[in-house]
Structures are given as structure tokens and as C-alpha cells.
Amino acid sequence: MQIRPANASFSSRGATRVVIMGVSGCGKSSLANALGAALGWQVVDADNLHTDASIAMMRQGVPLQDEHRWPWLKAVAAALAGDSNDNSSRVVACSTLKRAYRDTIRAACPGVHFVFLDGPIDLVMSRLQGRAGHYMPTSLLQTQFDTLERPGSDETDVLTLSMAQSVPDMVAHVRIAIGLPSHLPCIT
Q1: pTM
Q2: E-state strands within 87-136
Q3: For 49-61, b where at least 16 C-beta lie within 10 A, e where not — what string?
Q4: Which domain holds residue 24?
Q5: In sequence order, which residues have a C-beta less than 8 Å from that of residue 149 and are 6 or more positions away?
Q6: What is the DSSP letter of 156?
Q7: d(Cα 88, Cα 170) in Å, to the nearest integer?
Q8: How far is Cα of residue 183 from the mean position of the Cα atoms in its chain?
Q9: 93 belongs to a structural domain
Q10: What's the mean pLDDT in 154-182?
Q11: For position 24, which CATH number holds?
């Protein structure tokens, strides 16, 4: 597994938009919530933007197809972009497994940055088996890995981190990538 270091700067003028991406169970929500708490950013969990019909399909072990994902991805992009007068930074936990999904979000929210949580299927499976109260069954994990298009080297707006790292370590890497000290609290 190739892990790209946090060497590119995510810093930008105004609001920062970050998508934490990867397969179900990789730690997207945990990192998004920790990053939001550390930086005072708004946090959106894309799982909450699925339609009831899509959630019912996943509960039944039926993998979503693109026709189910496109309306969801548009809702995710709109939540990430926010109102044109909204200058608050935000982080979204969203799988964005395919390049086309990331490109859709990029088109709706120019300047967005992605953090890809990468790791082996056995680690994710162990996490999913210990997770309670989520609609995504372990039986769909392989379909997530089959769908995943790992970010290409030309996707310079993607920071790849190992999901095996601790959440505080991942927060520190993202903070460095956005131009903030890794160990000091951010005052907003």
C-alpha cells in the first residue's frame, strides 16, 4: 500500500472544504468529527444524506449503483459548497469511491481537498464487525473495495493516510496539510 505523505498544502483563502473519503468503516466519520472539533469547522456526514430507499437497499445487503449515488453525491456537493455567502470551513465524511464522484464534488466546490483513508480489507472488516447501529452490513464491504478507484497521482488535491493511524495523528497530518501547526489548538 502506498501512503502519500502530507507534503502538499491545502491552505487557501477563505473557507476550507475537506472531504474525508474511503470505504465504509475506514474511519471517515471519526476523523471528520475530530477535525471539526479541533478546528471549529462544520461537520457533515454524507451517510445522513442518503435517501430512505438507498438506506433500505443497503440494510438489505443490496449494493448501490450509480443511479442511486448520483442524487446523493449532488446533495453531498451542495452541503459541502454551502451558500455563496457562507465563508465557514467544513469537513464532510463521504466515501467518494470513484474518480467521477470526486470530480462531481470538485465541479460543485472548486478548491475542495480530499483525505483518503487507505488500508487493508481485514482491518476494515474487524472495525465493521465491532460497529453497532449502522445500516451498512459487512456483506457489502467487498463491493466497496471492488468499486474503489484509488486516487491517481494526478489528483494533487488528495492526501492519502493510513487508516491504521490514530485519529489524533491523522488530525495532525491534515492540520499540517492545511497550513496549521499540528499540536496547537486553532482559535476561530
Answers
A1: 0.81
A2: 90-93, 113-118
A3: bbeeebeebbeee
A4: 17-177
A5: 97, 98, 99
A6: T
A7: 22
A8: 22
A9: yes
A10: 90
A11: 3.40.50.300
Tell me the torsion sign for CA atoms 103, 51, 134, 141: negative
CA distance 45 to 29: 7
Phi-psi region of 86 (alpha: psi -120 to 50; beta: other; left: phi over 0): beta
66-81 vs 99-108: helix axis angle to the nearest 10? 30
Please give the C-alpha separations between residue 51 and each of 27, 42, 132, 145, in angstroms, as whole numbers: 22, 22, 21, 22
State the chain's maximal CA–CA distance in angstroms: 44
Q: Which of 124, 151, 160 is nearest to 140 (CA)?
A: 124
List residues bridging with 92 in a β-sheet.
19, 44
pLDDT in tens, 45-100: 888 888 788 778 877 777 778 888 888 888 888 888 876 667 788 999 998 999 99
Please tell me the total count of domains within the chain.
1
Sheet holding 158-162, edge to edge: 42-45, 90-93, 17-21, 113-118, 158-162
Task: Compute the Cα dihedral for 169, 122, 32, 97 and give only its sign.
Answer: positive
- The amino acid present at 143, given as its one-letter code, is T
Residue 11 lies inside a defined structural domain of this protein: no
In a domain, 25, yes or no: yes
Interval 89-106: pLDDT, tens: 899 999 899 999 999 999
Whether the CB-CB separation of 95 and 23 falls below 8 Å is answered with: yes
Question: Is the residue at 88 inside a domain?
Answer: yes
Count helices and strands in the chain by DSSP H and E runs: 7, 5
